[in-house]
DNA sequence: CTGAAAGCGCTTACAG
DNA sequence: CTGAAAGCGCTTACAG
């Protein structure tokens, strides 16, 4: 690279001012058509690169949106992220992704970085234990926040998520309708709103059907494929064995089904299994997995749209927007 | 927010200059211990937020590293990304993630954004069809590039990837050792170096064993779980059916095994299957999947380290660093 | 050990 | 329709 090309390089080459060049490159109608074309051509041939830091320093808009979730590898977030990406792409916002792995320190480091870079907004699925002031900090520094999948009490902003208790009630009620009465629930933690809501749905469905809740059939914890697989050992050690399992998520359910198969039990035949999320794999798994589609892409789309509205001046509102989930019945509950 | 706190706000409050405050906050030994402490305390209580755009404009270092791969949802990249994240975290670099979905336009938009933001470096798995000049453009504008998983001829930079032809040779040779002679290969495309190399390994292993390569048993294309599942249909229509399948990746293999099971065929018993990548799921799948561990975390770690070396002045070198893969024998090839 | 001043590369009123 | 000038918030020689 010879010499860095900047606005003034172009201005000098053309005998114009940097003001005119700046306006022309951003298609201002103030600049004469012919001037604009000469400028754009010169920018092109000289290999000019727009310096966003300089512009952003001046305008205090950066065109950056931060997105932070516990783990982007989780297909559940994958679909949400794709929807967000779509929505933001259309508004020419750059989006910066980050995992917090449910570590508050990682999440804080990320929010800090976004603040320092002057990001325009933040979409996040708050890490376990996120206190409301963490979100106020961002908001008070002109960084509007929208929450997804989980919410934080007193955060003062909008969160978008599936109606988890209703969704889990759908799954468990489906099992009951199928004739199952001995229904366990595997996975999830009451440290997250998602975990609490899904467990609530499980209990409500049982209560509605007049089935007693058995604490020993509630196996909390697993939230990944691997831990779902591992949970089978504990399940098989139960003194009285359930004949159906409502899993916290599809990943847990898929891992759990692998684990059952490993022990010679046929998921969907010997033990009914339901998942939650309706990830792509659910439909092709063997057996295919009965699950709850919780509208991830709607969550992502609406969260992004809400954030964009905030950027355009809409006020912050604390509310929880629930997307209504739907059950997908497949082979894994065909048993009885 | 009352008023934005900046260096000068702190300087005024303390009766110091911005120069001193700037130095103190960055722990310069030039500033007296006691002064530094007063400054840091004032920064803390006033809620000062460091403006990286301004600093970066001045220093032309941004602390940002861009990372771009075809799809972060692919567990293959997931492990690489985790290794990169680890390495970069230790050097306090912010990393910005992006999918290009093998679309050149998306990749270009990302590289452009990184250039505009003054990113310090770029790690990417080049999209199909990436021409060398795309990489030269970045390099010529002070944006050092390191490639992962795939390479581009004439790019002038280092790429890190598994030794794909060797790895696939391991898988196919293993099948041959097990007694299989009718071995198909499913998935991958010759549009990527990865696809070409793995196919080469497949052919070489057959040749070594004196087994003729049959074009109709080479079913290219699938690179995802879903397309692996779909490939079973074509496989079952083959006039002569192979008894073993070497898949392009674990995802393809897992989808393919689901597909076989759906058709009443037992993977690992009726049809042997191998994968590639040794993703987490391979070990717990049912049957567990024989696969090739291609050292993703080493790829990620070394690619990040190489890029950091470039940031510290190391020159660009065109080379392909191959990480030696290892075979993991599991149930899916236990058949005969 | 601390300060005054210039400058990074833009954009934005304001003039003309 | 175009230009001169100020300023965004830092850092970096340079002085003292």
TrEMBL record, chains A, B:
GO terms for molecular function: DNA binding. PROSITE patterns: HTH_LACI_2. SUPFAM superfamilies: lambda repressor-like DNA-binding domains (SSF47413), Periplasmic binding protein-like I (SSF53822). InterPro entries: HTH_LacI, LacI/GalR-like_sensor, Lambda_DNA-bd_dom_sf, Peripla_BP_I. Residues 5-59 form the HTH lacI-type domain. CDD domains: HTH_LacI (cd01392), PBP1_MalI-like (cd06289). Keywords: DNA-binding, Repressor, Transcription, Transcription regulation. This is DNA-binding transcriptional regulator, LacI/PurR family. It comes from Aureimonas altamirensis DSM 21988.
